[in-house]
Amino acid sequence: MGRGAEDHRLHHSRPRRGGRAGRPRRRDDGAAGPGQAHLSRPAQAPPRPLPPARRRGLPGDVRRALGRPRGGGHEGRADVAAGRAVSPAGPRREWLRLLAWRVGFGLAVLVLWEAASGRWIDPFWFSSPLRIATHLVGWVREGTLFGHLAVTLRETFLGFVLGSVAGIAVGVALSRLEFVAQVLDPFIVAANGIPRVALAPLFIIWFGIGELSKIVLASTLTFFLTFYGTFSGLRAVEPAYKDIARVMGASERQIFLKVNLPAASPWIVSALKVGVPFSLIGAIIGEFMAASRGLGYMIQFDTNQFDTTGAVSGILVLMLCVMLFNGLLNRLERYVLRWRPRERAAAARELQ
């Protein structure tokens, strides 16, 4: 097979497969020597150049983002994270445009309502926007609106905080105690199935007709929402994330704070957003049953007097409160979940 000392004895070829494929050549090279005058063959050709990188398979916005200079700020990264190109108008103009559409829709509903009142709709049943506005101005001048509104908001806030804290605490505890969670599961489901309207008279008997009974009723509505959100979110954490944290030397406390809690935060925040209107509903139901103050008391009093304008006025005030709370929770959600790609892309757009 060869003439130099570097060649081994003749042997059979491999029965199943050969070695790596090499460049075409005539014969084995000779032993290396000090001179270059007796080369066995010319120098090998240079390696073949690699084909050009394929970029046609990438989406258009990704290709454009990759082609931009890195020193230009956050725009390219925001494009890739958001999955679309950033609007040249900027986030402020988009927000103003959305606000204009919302205000326009609300005004259109009020105009149609006012136009239909007295023509196609009997004002006795639905009143009219002008009558409601006049009634609200009268409440403000008398000073009755803010006093009753403060009572309802206080009951709603305390019930929401109490129910949320208890629901999150119980959800965290049962997520770590699987056997206890299995034992208590049918009892929790049964307690959640009890209508809160049926509990309202009992709470009034137990805690009186003051604010405490309304706070407890509102907290029961919020408790189960936050409990199920926390429990389901913590149980849905990928075990691989926790295993990786353990390999890196994290303690159980660090795993809970750095892995479990951030992973379950979308579930918890969603439950809190739903819990705000439910806590308000609980406070209003309690005021319907027995109360001497609060918006629920005012709505119930006007309904008993067949004053549709007063009842609808109180309902509209409650709607405005829910919209305000929802806006505040949306800001809280963006702050708590700022580590998610969607929130990071929105923050990058705001920095432009």
Describe the 3D structure.
The protein has 352 residues and is mostly helical. The chain has a domain at 128-340: MetI-like fold, CATH 1.10.3720.10. 68% of the residues lie in helices and 0% in strands. The chain has helices spanning 60-66, 75-82, 91-116, 123-126, 129-142, 144-176, 178-192, 196-207, 211-235, 239-247, 252-289, 295-304, 308-336, 341-350. Helix 8 packs across helix 9 (211-235), helix 10 (239-247) crosses helix 11 and helix 12 (295-304) packs antiparallel against helix 13. The chain is flat, with a radius of gyration of 35 Å.
Rg, please?
35 Å
| Spans where pLDDT lies below 50 across 5 or more residues | 69-88, 344-352
- Can you tell me the overall shape? flat
Class by SSE composition: mainly alpha
- What CATH architecture label of the domain at 128-340 applies? Orthogonal Bundle
- The termini sit apart by 71 Å
What is the CATH class of the domain at 128-340? Answer: Mainly Alpha
The CATH topology annotation of the domain at 128-340 reads as: MetI-like fold
The description of the largest β-sheet is: none
How many individual β-strands? 0
